[in-house]
Amino acid sequence: MPSTQLLPQPKRAEFPAGTLALTGLGVRTLGNAPELGWAARDLRAEWKTRLGAALPDAKASGPSIVIGTLADADLAAKAKAAGLSTTAAEGYALWVDAGGAYIVGADAKGAYEGAQTLRQLLTPAGLRFARVSDSPTLKERVAMIYLDQYSKGVNDALIPMLAALKYNAVLVMSNYVQWDTARAGGYAHPGGASKAEARRVAALAREHGLEVIPLIETLGHVQWMYYGGANKDLYQDPDSQNPYAYDTLNPATYSRVLFPIFKEAAEVFGAKTIHIGHDEVRNRDRFPARANGKAAGFEKLFVDDTVKIHDHLKSLGVNTMIWHDSAFSDSVISSLPAKLPRDIQVAYWNYAPGTDYPTVQQITSLGFPVLGASWDEAGNAEGLTDAAVKAGALGMIQTRWTGYFGNPSIWDGQAQQGVAYVRAAGAFWNPDARPVQSAEAIYRDLYAPVAYRGAAGATVNLGTLATRSLTDDDEKGWIGKGPDIDLRNLKTGVQQIGAYKFEISGALMLRGARGAVSDLPTKVSIEIGRRADALAFLHTTGWPSAVARENIGRYEIEYADGTKLVQPLEYGRHIRAWTDTLPTSMIPAPGWAGQTADGLVVNVPVLEWKNPKPAVAIKSITLISEGKNANPTLIGLTLIGGQ
Are 118 and 43 in contact (CB under 8 A)? Predict the structure, then answer.
């Protein structure tokens, strides 16, 4: 079912009682701006995904969804009469009542942003009544994505999600795109995205209201230009075994490599700005390393390189962005920045949660346009955004460091970085709103949206099979640590947990390496005798595994026809400890979350297993433990469908 939380939280929102019925409802756009067509497209996609129904064009009479801007005099008058008009860039007025639904953007982009809010008002019964007046606090709201050989499968999901979260730009890590220049020079990485894929992703982003800012790391982090042993004459440090920086005093660095690639990138991405990196320049190689570089000194080498690239990009009509750390470090901030062009955009990265980031104001005071850059820890994006707003910064970037050629890990492996997109989106749009709740569930739903349909099923009572209670009053229950660290706050009985219902009575905990569970069985079978389209396991482990993806057990599903199927349990991928709240994989759905009596935050995820043989009755399900530190523990089991 849909969430009642709007994300990002609008500046002003009221929800009168009532619902606009879907029967006969259609959509109409007033105006020719492409953003209006994108808004209608996204609404139609929402109807199709969530309801399995088409959203038609509006009829000549009756309630409809109307999308337009203040440029339409009639719509402007309606918004004014409703008391919801806004003229702020990307702002919009939205209202839903018995007469229909209206989105009136201050500009065309605002109308598109309003459509993202309207999507969240959709329920199986209709559109919730609402009155919204909204606009973003920050001008630039940027999310970082990657181009590699896995780009299509990931970016086709990420880009619409980022648009739904009201980002308005993407920072696209593009080092290993197979540029014509790299192919001719013999250093095009086979795992890099093709130039055609880069062009496709750029077009997809623009058609979702996202400006495309390629990131091509230069000065440092330039292993990409040495792939396959190429360009050895351009090493900054000729003795380096793993070259990291380039020689700024060799003209071929620019004429052979950088300038041709920047020209390709500007054309392929339609870029208004290119991020040229320039961070952590002296972290690995000696810099300077060559005699002529040592004579010039680091500061001159850095400034001359940055200015040379900046001037070249300016000749292409492109702005320059850099990371802050090398140019604004304590050792050079009193002299180096004064030698840089003041139109260079500076991305200040700080990945620690907090509220005090004085460097943002310091860089702004030096005359540079600044964007804050946050990462994935809770509180980082929120605190840094507040500092950026106070400093009058241009915007914020939500960075993502999943590693090159690791694109799929945003769903399975490093999914916490995807969850951070959600939290950051709330902060970037409306820093005054409370931190986003249930960010993990929202990320899972936006990246891989599913229909708003409830499936009939049956809960399974595990009470007679339970080996441990959820409470531990006598240090003989749960994990034997006493009443302050047990699962007593996960109440027994039939409970709605996330999208699922479970009958909770106790824990089917199995043996593990810990002495506290050494007396428990290594396996237990649950008789089923029923068909099912899917199985939902509310499960966890008593303790975490020290090894990611360690196989800690399995479910064996036996059918009435005698066949068996196995679902392995890899730690962090299919199951995790009740005390392990980091969602590294989205394969499990968010389940129950709460606290122990002593305030420890805990959770129990849900693994949904799609049954490939729904027409055959399931005879039994056997849970088996491998006896590792992380011991499988089943708390709830539900059969979905299959009546």
Answer: yes
With the C-alpha atoms ordered 582, 208, 142, 183, is the resulting torsion angle positive or negative?
Answer: positive
Q: Which tens digit of pLDDT belongs to each residue from 123-141?
A: 999 999 999 999 999 999 9
- The pair of structure tokens assigned to 263 is 């020209």
39: buried, middle or exposed (CB in 10 Å: 19+, 13-18, 0-12)?
A: buried
Q: Is beta strand 500-504 parallel, antiparallel or unpaired with respect to 370-374?
A: unpaired
pTM, rounded to two decimals? 0.96
Is 94 in contact with 118 (CB distance < 8 Å)?
yes
pLDDT at residue number 3: 74
CA angle 525, 536, 548 (to 5 degrees): 85
Rounded CA separation 443/421 (Å):
8
Q: How far apart are alpha carbons 399 and 99 in whole angstroms? A: 42
Q: Which residues of 185-216 are buried (b: 16+ CB within 10 A; e: fewer)?
A: bebbbeebbbbebbbbbbebbbbbbbbbbbbb
The per-residue DSSP string of 590-615 comes to: EEEEEE-TT--EEEEEEEEEE-S-TT
Three-state SS at 546: coil
- Nearest-Å Rg of the Cα atoms of the chain is 28
> How many Å apart are CA 217 and CA 170, to the nearest integer?
16
Angle between helices 195-206 and 151-164 (to 10 degrees): 20
Is residue 195 within 8 Å of 204, Cβ to Cβ? no
Nearest to 443 by CA among 156, 114, 165: 165
Cβ partners under 8 Å of residue 23, min gap 6: none
Candidates 128, 106, 135, 111; CA nearest to 14 is 128
The pLDDT value given to residue 543: 98
Whether the predicted pLDDT of 453 surpasses 80: no
C-alpha to C-alpha distance for 548 and 351, rounded to whole angstroms: 23
More confident residue, 352 or 285: 352
How far apart CA 425 and CA 158 sit, in angstroms, is 13
